[in-house]
Amino acid sequence: MLYKHILLAIDDSPISYAAIAHAEKLAIALNCKVTVTSVIAVDPFKGVDFYKVAPAVTQYLMEAEQNVQNRLKDVQETLIHHGVSVVETKIVRELPPATGILEAADELNADLIVMGSHGRTGFKKFFLGSVAQEVLSISPLPVLIIKSVNELE
After folding, report:
1. What keyword terms does UniProt attach to this protein (predicted)?
2. How crowded is residue 102: how many other Cβ atoms within 10 Å of its Cβ?
3. Using one digit for the tens of pLDDT, what is the confidence trace for 66-94?
C-alpha cells in the first residue's frame, strides 16, 4: 500500500526525533503529506482543589501550549527544509495521549501513524502504561513504532 498521509505523533523525548527521521524518509520516498501532532495531556492537577492551584494550572497550560507550538513549528520547518512537500501541524488538547492521537488520525484521514516508543518493559510498563502500546492495540490504521534513537542509514 502506498501511504498518502502520515500522522507523526511526537513529544519532547529523544525517541520522537528518531520517529521524525523515519517519517521524513517515508514521506519523501512516497511523496506523502505529514501532519505532526502532539497531545497536551489531560490536566495533571485534576482532582486537586481547583481554587488552591488555579494560578499554577493556568501557568502550566500556557507553558505547555507554547512549548508544543514551538516544537511543532520547528519540526514542520525541518521537514519542509529536508524535502517533505506538505507538512501540517495539529495540537490535541485535554485528551489522554493515545485517545488524542487516534482521534487526530481519524479526523485527518491519515493512513499511517508513526510514533516512538520509550521501550518500557515489565513493571515500568505496567505502572506507567504505554501510549504506543495502546495506540497499536486500538488503531484501525497501520502503526509504525520506532524504538531506537540510533541514526538512520
Report:
1. Cytoplasm
2. 24
3. 999 999 999 999 999 999 999 999 999 88
Is there a domain that residue 151 lies in?
no
What is the dihedral sign for C-alpha 143, 27, 4, 41?
positive
Residue 32 lies in a domain: yes
pTM surpassing 0.70? Answer: yes
With respect to residue 153, please indicate whether it lies within any of the assigned structural domains: no
Q: Cell triple for residue 152?
A: 538512520
Distance from C-alpha of 43 to C-alpha of 51, rounded to nearest angstrom: 15
Number of alpha carbons in the 13 Å side-chain half-sphere of residue 72: 22
CATH code, 76: 3.40.50.620
- pLDDT value of residue 88: 98
Domain, as residue range, for 37: 7-146
What total number of domains does the chain contain?
Answer: 1
Dihedrals φ, ψ of 150, to 5°? -65, 150
Answer yes or no: is 92 within a domain: yes
**How far is 84 from 128, CA to CA, in rounded Å?**
34
Rounded-to-integer distance, Cα 53 and Cα 16, Å:
31
Q: How far, in Å, CA of 22 to CA of 28, rounded?
A: 10
Distance CA 110, CA 127 (A): 30
